[in-house]
Amino acid sequence: MGLMIGTVGMDPATSTSRFAFGVLGLDNGISFIAVLIGIFAVTQSLINLQLQVNHHFCRDRMTALLPSWTEFKGCFASIVRGSLIGTFIGMLPGAGATVAAFMSYSVEARISKNPERVGKGDINCVAGPGSADNSAAGGALLPLLSLGIPGSETTAVLLGALMIHGMTPGPLLFTEHTELVWALIASLYIANCLGLLLATVGIKPLTQILRLPTSIMSAFILVMSVVGSYSINNSMVEVWTMLVFGILGYLMKWLALPVAPFILALVLGPMAVCRFSSTAPSP
């Protein structure tokens, strides 16, 4: 489906319109940003409205959310194993953090010294998957920066952002845009520090936003999605694109279809079509 949508727009070789059906706004292809807004923001809003999600709040003191030194020493090996697993799985295109977390959980459950505690609050089964989930983000950058192949949904979005700014990820990125690569690597260190700060200090006040009723929260997200889609090119084409893919994402969630392959194909599809068009023999 992502490959099919990637063919919409002007053919780079013949300059003829493909699958635009007379809509001028589609001659440049389906807006990647509008698709992302629809497939993530609109879809989640519709799901929240359907399920009427009720949020529960932790009223304990902040220190109750932090592990003790004894607990940290006990799960240190799990953290190391989860980090290694997450980094390796993150390098595999399309796998993502979810696969890394479940694989780490499976490993911890198999080697647990207290199997009766597995699934009932075993800290090793929490620390390992949590570390794998976080380390998968760094691992997914390796194939993106070195080969131009996104390893997850997030890096697929990052690939789209780089291409919008005229940068093609790959070996030449390290020589032509060295400052960008090192800035991206430095941003990982900054992100981890900020993540620690938010997880320990800001989690309590930030969760207060969940006190808003689901209907108000979803309505606000939908309004901001419409405004953001329209501001891409000041065109209603992007708004309709966002709404269509929001409904499509909702159906995919309902049918339990993964979104990651769709996003990866949507990013890589136009690149493959452009390469094929440039190498195909003339009729």
Architecture overview:
The protein is 67% helix and 1% strand. The mean pLDDT is 79. The longest helix is centred in the last third of the chain and has 29 residues, at 178-206. The protein has helices spanning 2-6, 32-51, 69-74, 76-90, 96-111, 124-147, 153-164, 173-176, 178-206, 214-233, 236-254, 260-279; strands spanning 9-10, 17-18. It has one domain (2-279). It has a two-stranded antiparallel ribbon. The protein has 283 residues and is an all-alpha fold. Helix 4 packs antiparallel against helix 5 and helix 5 packs antiparallel against helix 6 (124-147).
User: Rg, please?
Assistant: 22 Å
β-strand percent reads under 5%
Characterize the largest beta sheet: strand count, sense, and whether it forms a barrel.
2 strands, antiparallel
Tell me the span between the first and last alpha carbons.
27 Å
Mean pLDDT: 79
Q: What is the strand tally?
A: 2
Low-confidence stretches: none
- H/E series: HEEHHHHHHHHHHH
Tell me the count of domains. Answer: 1
Strand line-up of the largest beta sheet: 1-2
What structural class results from the helix and strand content? mainly alpha
Number of helices: 12
Helix content: 55-70%
From the spread of the alpha carbons, the general shape counts as globular
